[in-house]
Design brief:
The chain is of the alpha/beta class. It contains 11 helices and 8 strands. α4 runs parallel beside α5, α7 crosses α8 and α9 runs parallel beside α11. The longest helix has 15 residues. The structure holds the ligand O=c1ccn([C@@H]2O[C@H](COP(=O)(O)O)[C@@H](O)[C@H]2O)c(=O)[nH]1. The ligand O=c1ccn([C@@H]2O[C@H](COP(=O)(O)O)[C@@H](O)[C@H]2O)c(=O)[nH]1 binds next to β8 and α10.
Length: 238
């Protein structure tokens, strides 16, 4: 994964999606299709975006018993996305089943999508995690624990915040993917996110890919905002 800036297409219908995408005639985007769009438009939206030669992260965060996740992933693999995900809280057996489903559903001669696991949502604070999930650890420890079991299951990386990336690299190596939402420019509103970082901070932490939604899609000039995020994200990478 070559350090993409992934744009979250949190729209409720395909007209809004293509109105947005059509502003980027000269760019091959890496976009994220999440629950809002997928549940409204169904699986065919994936092919329509692929026809325009954009890469796709299908962010459905699967979390169920292993057998159900196996079958769901087998079906999703047929859509030909680049990246899919599960919740690490579903457990090691569930994550292994997700990978088996992806392998089973990937067409012969094609590469299976990468699969990452959500650790703690970027909208979760440590205080919330402790009081609502009854986890008696720091947030970093919880993210590290979920990442360790994800790696043991054979998962390719995790969704976390930029704040946890250095410790993950230390324990899991730099090849393990870190995909971080909760990205904001200093001028942006934080909204419902709790663990946020700027694109520069994410780059300095060594993040593999950043995810940006409203900062681009709801901007007055989405194209200009995309370029501003991209410039800050690309910076000087060492
Ligand atoms: O921990 C997570 C996991 C997924 N997301 C998703 O990323 C985008 C972020 O959108 P913004 O508008 O930039 O806040 C959104 O689609 C979430 O579903 C996340 O934010 N945190």
């Amino acid at each position: 994964m070559n350090h993409p800036l992934i744009v979250a297409l949190d729209f409720s219908n395909k007209n809004e999606v293509f109105q947005f995408i059509d502003q980027f005639q000269d760019e091959r985007l890496f976009v994220k299709v999440g629950m809002e769009l997928f549940y409204q438009e169904g699986p065919q939206i994936i092919q329509e975006i692929k026809d325009k030669e954009h890469q796709i992260f299908l962010d459905l965060k699967l979390h169920d018993i292993p057998n159900t996740v196996y079958s769901a992933m087998k079906g999703l693999a047929k859509l030909g996305c680049d990246l899919v995900n599960v919740h690490a809280a579903g457990g090691k057996d569930m994550m292994m089943a997700a990978l088996e489903g992806l392998e089973a559903g990937t067409k012969a001669g094609e590469v299976r999508p990468s699969c990452i696991a959500v650790t703690q949502l970027t909208s979760t604070s440590e205080q919330q995690m402790r009081s609502e999930q009854l986890i008696e650890a720091t947030l970093q420890e919880s993210v590290l624990h979920y990442s360790l079991i994800a790696q043991e299951a054979g998962i390719d990386g995790v969704v976390c915040s930029s704040h946890e990336v250095k410790i993950l690299h230390h324990h899991l190596g730099k090849e393990f993917l870190t995909v971080t939402p909760g990205i904001r420019l200093n001028s942006d509103l934080v909204q419902d996110q709790k663990r946020v970082a700027t694109p520069d901070e994410a780059r300095e932490a060594g993040v593999s890919a950043i995810v940006v939604g409203r900062g681009i899609t709801k901007a007055e000039d989405p194209y200009a905002s995309y370029q501003a995020y991209k410039q800050a994200w690309e910076g000087v990478r060492i």
